UniProtKB/TrEMBL annotation, chain A:
It comes from Oricola cellulosilytica. It is an enzyme of class 1 (oxidoreductase). This is dihydrouracil dehydrogenase (NAD(+)). Heterotetramer of 2 PreA and 2 PreT subunits. The gene is preA. Involved in pyrimidine base degradation. Catalyzes physiologically the reduction of uracil to 5,6-dihydrouracil (DHU) by using NADH as a specific cosubstrate. It also catalyzes the reverse reaction and the reduction of thymine to 5,6-dihydrothymine (DHT).
TrEMBL record, chain B:
Its EC number is 1.3.1.1. Signal peptide: none annotated. Heterotetramer of 2 PreA and 2 PreT subunits. Involved in pyrimidine base degradation. Catalyzes physiologically the reduction of uracil to 5,6-dihydrouracil (DHU) by using NADH as a specific cosubstrate. It also catalyzes the reverse reaction and the reduction of thymine to 5,6-dihydrothymine (DHT). GO terms for molecular function: dihydropyrimidine dehydrogenase (NAD+) activity; iron-sulfur cluster binding. It is an enzyme of class 1 (oxidoreductase). It comes from the Bacteria. This is dihydrouracil dehydrogenase (NAD(+)). Residues 144-427 form the FAD/NAD(P)-binding domain. InterPro entries: DPD_II, FAD/NAD-bd_sf, FAD/NAD-binding_dom, Helical_ferredxn. SUPFAM superfamilies: alpha-helical ferredoxin, Nucleotide-binding domain. It comes from Oricola cellulosilytica. It catalyses: 5,6-dihydrothymine + NAD(+) = thymine + NADH + H(+); 5,6-dihydrouracil + NAD(+) = uracil + NADH + H(+).
Length: 437, 443
């Protein structure tokens, strides 16, 4: 059986599944239940500086969007960092680490953007025996209004500065948690690396309003008639997280920088995708909050099953394997021509492919053939866009198949050799170059 | 028949009060909001949806289901009523398993169609419970139309005509409007006096006057209607029942199933309805199934449907037959009725021929459900003849009969399949045709 154990920044854990810093990791009771269920590690709910803790709203703090059958697809929260006393948290962290030495114990931190508070809190965390710290530069609501969280994460110079302080004041590995509320994720990652951080983790939550109450005309969740933006997470954010992870993984400046992947991880497959993009561990919040800690059993079984099938003995065998295949659009092979193919035995004749293509794409799927309801791709029109595949309710019913010979749409032979936009005759840059020569 | 003559066992009150309630309660309990949303989520919003094509009234099913999903059940109800003002009744009585739900792509995908009928009921019930009306009459045209028969065909026609601004007089032979919705449909499909509630809901649009107890051919003549009105619609259904012929006998316990159901439907206290201990029902259609199931539900011990043909040819759908079996009714095929056995003027059994052999079933009652027939006397006795075809009124695609100014639809015409929903479609379409004629000033 595959070995799922990981060593991330020298921190060992029996599997790559960590709980992200959030309510599931806010106290000893939860964290011990998580470890009993099988989680490989936790990032403890973000601690603030000593003194009176932050307060949370006492009204609703979550909003959500749902798919069919009210399956939760996206979650939004306006919760702050831990609202429990620092001393209580530290005591519990120490206790849990002592009881569960084989699990990763990372402590998330957020204190004002000055050297002294960071120095102070790092010393306190070290006393607990925790394995590392994660700097929360991501929280997009509340704390950011106070100059912390994403307010730091949006300014690369601050990230670099704080990371440097932390590296100076602790021997523990330092992970910088990035906010996605930024235009170019590579910049904060580069800054973290310059500051000496050992790793980055991403993504934290995305600014969001999940709904507007149409009776009270206020965003949801509504607290006494008003609402503010929250942070978005759950399955809906996974594509954004994967893209940001890939940007950092393939950026020459940050390539090789350890990454802990976060954002919408719900099943083993999601986790494996983050790992394939280079992540050494994955963190989960919403899925655990939706279904409870037991889901890790599916993740462990699914990942090890996948690895066995593929013959991978450890996570390292496939970690980062997808990174070289993430490229820029301009390098995609324009001579790769596909056509949609409908498996008539699987087709249930719902007509969704037809209307998607007819109304919004390329008029390339029939709905009637010889007076009978029949859905078939018209190769002369199909541009190979894949839209029909995405709307078909039957998995595997429509597939995209590469063709050779003459493309019935363009009436031109399909060139078997690779060629991309950089050399395409329609590319203005190519004309300019030719003109210069 | 070697046994000594036995006591004929026919009596009311075979069950306790709770059993009647349970056995005559809704066949399919309505969906609540949660169930409706879960079910609506299953719909794929198909293009040119097969379910819609399979609906005789062509309700925009994907649209109304989407409206339910989007928490707009009233919008869904309007989408349904736009095509079918009897959407509430149809949701209860349509054999969906051979109509929309048979065509649903999820039937093909996984053998479990979207529950279109129940969703339709959810939407229409919501609107009717709120007494929400969607239609206002167009400005009066000053035209008057007579409708004969207040069944689904007649009232669907009347509603559409009233909507278009015409004045409608409905002549109904019986005491109550509703046609077979009131007098025929099985009690467990439409409990709580739904049929009358629906008639009220439909006629609330205004401009429709129902004259009960007025029969064409008896109290009024077609000649007079064509003279006094700008147009006439005939929606008289099938007033006659087919006879068993030589196999029949004049005996107590020899019952016409339609009449028996009619009486049953008008009973307020089911425990007063007598039923035999052993009942034989002859026929293979919905009426046979309904009579058998209701006899069984009244406490009959042994109920046997005897159909002359093979299983595949039975008109009642597979699903209806299934219901009969679940309710404890025995269904026997290839049973050709030969002779009713009576002694002392009372039925004691029924003799059949099956694969050339004689089969006798002892029983206390024989219910004949071998089809209804159109009785043309009402027409021809009162006015110039209207062309019939295969025993029913011949109409063209728009519902026009051979007689000027006279339209027809529902069971009394030759074009349908004897379903409520088809009657509604034909009544509605005839109304549009009448409206077109009246607006063109051709009358
Ligand atoms: C027992 C039984 C069960 C059925 N179950 C179902 C079912 O589950 N689902 C389904 O879809 N269909 C069912 N049907 C069929 C369905 O009821 C009919 O197809 C439908 O009612 C036809 O509508 P209609 O308006 O044409 O006729 P009817 O409903 O028969 O209405 C005709 C009306 O005209 C009146 N009338 C008749 N003669 C005259 C006259 N001379 N003057 C004035 N008025 C007159 C009658 O009193 C009646 O009110 C069933 C039928 C029967 C008999
Ligand atoms: C209620 C809630 C509170 C959170 N609090 C924190 C926090 O204190 N510190 C932090 O770094 N991230 C916090 N997060 C963000 C999560 O750690 C995680 O980055 C994000 O939810 C994306 O992962 P997911 O899609 O698996 O939920 C919080 C998320 C939620 C839902
Ligand atoms: S791939 Fe795109 S263009 Fe081709 S048939 Fe499908 S939807 Fe139409
Ligand atoms: S979307 Fe899929 S199932 Fe539906 S008609 Fe097209 S190919 Fe068939
Ligand atoms: S066929 Fe079924 S899935 Fe398609 S629109 Fe109709 S009810 Fe919905």
């Amino acid at each position: 059986m595959a070995n799922l154990s990981t060593e991330f920044l020298g921190i060992r854990s029996p599997n790559p599944f960590w709980l992200a810093s959030a309510p599931p990791t806010d106290k000893q009771y939860n964290v011990e239940r998580a470890f009993e269920a099988g989680w490989g590690g936790v990032v403890w709910k973000t601690l603030g500086e000593a003194g009176p803790p932050v307060v949370n709203v006492n009204g609703p703090r979550y909003g959500a969007i749902w798919g069919a059958d009210r399956r939760l697809l996206g979650l939004n929260n306006i919760e702050l960092i831990t609202d429990r006393d620092l001393e209580v948290n530290l005591r519990e962290i120490k206790e849990v680490k002592r009881k569960w030495p084989d699990r990763a114990m990372i402590v998330s931190l957020m204190v004002p953007c000055e050297e002294e508070p960071w120095k102070k809190i790092l010393a306190r965390v070290e006393e607990t025996g925790a394995d590392g710290v994660e700097l929360n530069f991501g929280c997009p609501h509340g704390m950011s209004e106070r100059g912390m969280g994403s307010a730091v994460g949006q300014v690369p110079e601050y990230i670099e500065m704080v990371a440097r302080w932390c590296k100076q004041h602790t021997r523990m590995p330092v992970i910088v948690k990035l906010t996605p509320n930024i235009t170019d994720i590579r910049k904060p990652a580069e800054a973290a690396k310059r500051g000496g951080a050992d790793a980055v983790s991403l993504i934290n939550t995305i600014n969001s309003i999940t709904a507007v109450d149409l009776d009270n005309f206020a965003p949801e969740p509504t607290i006494d008639g008003k609402g503010s933006h929250g942070g978005y997470c759950g399955p809906a954010v996974k594509p954004i997280a994967l893209s940001m992870v890939s940007e950092i993984a393939r950026n020459p400046e940050t390539h090789g920088l350890p990454i802990s992947g976060i954002g919408g991880v719900t099943t083993w497959r999601d986790a494996a995708e983050f790992i394939a993009l280079g992540c050494g561990s994955v963190q989960v919040c919403t899925a655990a909050m939706t279904y409870g800690f037991k889901i890790v059993q599916e993740m462990i079984a699914g990942l090890s099953n996948y690895m066995d099938e593929k013959g991978y003995e450890s996570i390292e065998d496939f970690r980062g394997k997808a990174v070289p295949n993430v490229t820029d659009w301009q390098y995609l092979n324009l001579n790769y021509v596909t056509k949609a193919r409908i498996d008539q035995d699987l087709c249930i004749k719902c007509g969704r492919c037809h209307i998607a293509c007819e109304d919004t794409s390329h008029q390339a799927i029939t709905n009637m053939v010889d007076g009978a309801r029949h859905f078939e791709v018209i190769d002369e029109e199909c541009v190979g866009c894949n839209m029909c595949v995405n709307v078909c309710p039957v998995e595997g019913c429509i597939s995209m198949e590469p063709i050779a010979g003459v493309d019935p749409r363009t009436k031109k032979p399909v060139d078997p050799d690779y060629a991309n936009w950089t050399t395409h005759p329609n590319n203005p840059a190519v004309w300019a170059k030719e003109a210069a020569e | 028949m070697s046994e000594a003559p036995r006591e004929r066992d026919v009596k009311p009150g075979r069950l306790d009060a709770d059993s009647y309630l349970e056995l005559f309660s809704d066949l399919h309990p309505p969906l609540d909001r949660h169930e409706a949303h879960v079910e609506a989520d299953r719909c794929y919003f198909c293009y040119d949806a097969p379910c819609m094509t399979a609906c005789p009234t062509e309700i925009d099913i994907p649209l109304f289901i989407r409206e339910i999903s989007a928490d707009n059940p009233l919008g869904a109800a309007k989408t349904i009523f736009d095509q079918n003002i009897f959407g509430g009744m149809c949701a209860r009585v349509c054999p969906t398993e051979t109509l929309c739900e048979q065509a649903c792509v999820r039937e093909l995908a996984e053998g479990k169609p979207v529950k279109i009928g129940l969703l339709q009921r959810y939407a229409t019930d919501t609107a009717m419970a709120q007494n929400k009306h969607f239609y206002v009459r167009a400005p009066s045209t000053g035209k008057r139309v007579a409708v004969v028969g207040a069944g689904p065909a007649g009232l669907a026609c009347a509603h559409r005509l009233a909507m278009r601004g015409h004045e409608v007089d409905v002549y109904e032979a019986r005491e109550k409007a509703g046609g077979l919705n009131e007098y025929g449909i099985a009690a467990y499909k439409t409990p709580e006096n739904f049929a009358q509630a629906e008639v009220d809901y439909i006629t609330a649009i205004g401009g429709i006057t129902i004259h009960e107890g007025k029969a064409l051919g008896r109290d009024i003549a077609l000649e007079r209607l064509t003279r006094d009105y700008d147009a006439v619609f005939l929606g008289m259904g099938l007033a006659g029942v087919n006879a068993l012929g030589d196999a029949d006998a004049e005996a107590e316990g020899s019952l016409d199933a339609v009449g028996w159901i009619r009486d049953l439907r008008q009973t307020t206290d089911l425990s007063t309805v007598p039923v035999g201990r052993r009942v034989v029902v002859i026929g293979g259609g919905m009426t046979a199934v309904d009579a058998a199931v209701q006899a069984k539900s009244l406490g009959a011990d042994e109920v046997t449907i005897c159909y002359r043909g093979p299983k595949e040819r039975m008109k009642a759908s597979e699903y209806e037959q299934e219901i009969a079996k679940i309710r404890g009714v025995t269904v026997r095929y290839g049973m050709l009725p030969k002779r009713m056995i009576a002694s002392g003027g009372v039925v004691t059994g029924m003799e059949f021929e099956r694969d050339g052999e004689r089969v006798v079933i002892e029983c206390d009652e024989v219910m004949k459900a071998i089809g209804q027939s159109f009785t043309p006397e009402a027409l021809n006795g009162s006015g110039p003849s209207i062309t019939l075809e295969r025993g029913r009124i011949r109409v063209d695609a728009e519902g026009r009969t051979s007689m000027d100014k006279v339209w027809a639809g529902g069971d009394c015409v030759n074009a349908g399949d004897d379903l409520t929903v088809t009657a509604v479609a034909q009544g509605r379409d005839a109304a549009e045709s009448i409206h077109t004629m009246l607006s063109s000033g051709a009358s």
